[in-house]
Specification:
Elements (H helix, E strand, L loop, with lengths): L11 H17 L5 H8 L4 H13 L3 E2 L9 E2 L4 H16 L2 H10 L2 E10 L11 E5 L10 E7 L13 E6 L8 E6 L2 E11 L8 E6 L8 E3 L4 E11 L3
Parallel strand pairs: 3-5
Antiparallel strand pairs: 1-2, 3-4, 5-6, 6-11, 7-8, 7-11, 8-9, 9-10
């Protein structure tokens, strides 16, 4: 019988990238895009992303088929996540039925679902509707967070699909490249934000570009005073 060799150890940065990939798959059902990995870690280029994924692939932790978007498959979990899962399993098994019930309640957070938002053209103003339950680990600031149901397909290359529920942290500012929820003429939309001069305008005046993540669609351009940032997207929930 052939003895199974242990996997090579990970560097701290490799481990962080693997944990991010795992948590993204667990929360959204799909692996992160190169852009999301690059933005999350503040990497200088996509080559850096490819290098980390290549290292994880060579060490046997993931599979990453070339030429396929969001196709990263985790073969072996990062040790920290394994330890957390094992710890949760032990505490759940040894706890009383009442403590297990209280623990389950503590692990659920209810956020207001404020209607629908377009991943296409803006469609309707935000309005209170109902609540959705989410794991607290997906929300950094619960008191300033809300949920929206997505309609449309302009963000599919970022893994945001029609009928997905996005989690949004309220704030009025964002950085270039952030996925935001904005209102234009009291209608809400989700797009990537860029503040820059419009290439075809012949002017250096800064405009707000609301860019879709769908190569078949074009950006929408507005003057800064026309756009109100309502928050940045911090998570996603998908039901199968």
């Amino acid at each position: 019988m052939t003895k199974k060799l242990p996997l090579p150890p990970l560097t701290p940065k490799e481990k962080s990238v693997l944990e991010f990939i795992e948590s993204h798959i667990l929360s959204s059902g799909v692996s992160p895009s190169y852009q999301e990995i690059k933005d999350h870690f503040g990497l200088a280029s996509f080559n850096s992303v490819q290098n980390y994924l290549k290292q994880l692939t060579n060490k046997g932790y993931i599979e990453n088929p070339l030429g396929q978007k969001r196709a990263i498959q985790v073969l072996h979990s990062a040790s920290t996540i394994q330890e957390q899962l094992q710890s949760k399993s032990v505490s759940t098994k040894t706890g009383s039925p009442r403590s297990q019930l209280l623990q389950a309640r503590d692990e659920i957070l209810s956020l207001p679902l404020l209607g629908k938002v377009a991943a296409g053209q803006p469609i309707e103003a935000l309005k209170h509707d109902e609540f959705v339950d989410v794991p607290p680990s997906m929300v950094r600031n619960p008191s300033k967070s809300f949920a929206l149901k997505v309609q449309g397909d302009s963000m599919i290359e970022d893994g945001i699909f029609d009928e997905d529920i996005i989690l949004v942290q309220k704030q009025e500012s964002a950085s270039n490249g952030d996925i935001i929820v904005a209102t234009v003429d009291n209608e809400a939309t989700v797009k990537r934000l860029y503040l820059r001069a419009r290439p075809d305008s012949g002017s250096n005046e800064k405009m707000v570009e609301l860019r879709p993540s769908n190569s078949t669609m074009k950006s929408m351009w507005y003057s800064p005073e026309e756009v109100s940032i309502r928050g940045i997207v911090v998570g996603l929930i998908r039901k199968f």
